[in-house]
Amino acid sequence: MLLSFVLIALCAGVALATQAAINSQLAGALTGQPAVAALISFATGTLVLLLICIWKTDLFGALQQVPKQPLWKLIGGPLGALVVFTTIFLAPKMGVTNMLFFIIVGQLVAAAIIDHFGLIGMPARPVQLWQIIGFIVIACGLTLFFFGKKIFG
Q: H or E segment at 27?
């Protein structure tokens, strides 16, 4: 695995945590409206992506291919919107750390299933023993994180 890919993924994790905190503050400033904050977040993000696509891609050539795609390939945007809304809604209620722990667990479980079975057109990458051990370590870490004070308190 290339170090640059790992660094990009780590930066994406930093961005997700930061985005949740920023968008939660935006929602609070908008009379506690997480859906409006998510809409503004997506609108400003869409503007940035539009500018990047105009600058770096064949945007109009790619857009001509959209009507030819099955609808399931267009679900990514609504799923992203749901994730952003969820983070805005949950971050002030659970805290960013607690929320992201559960999001990451959900991501890891779904990713392992997708990889193992090669779902959604992804190449099959069967789950290995070390990955299962890693999940167990994560579960132990989560138990310590959430209940360590009660267990060892």
A: helix 3-29
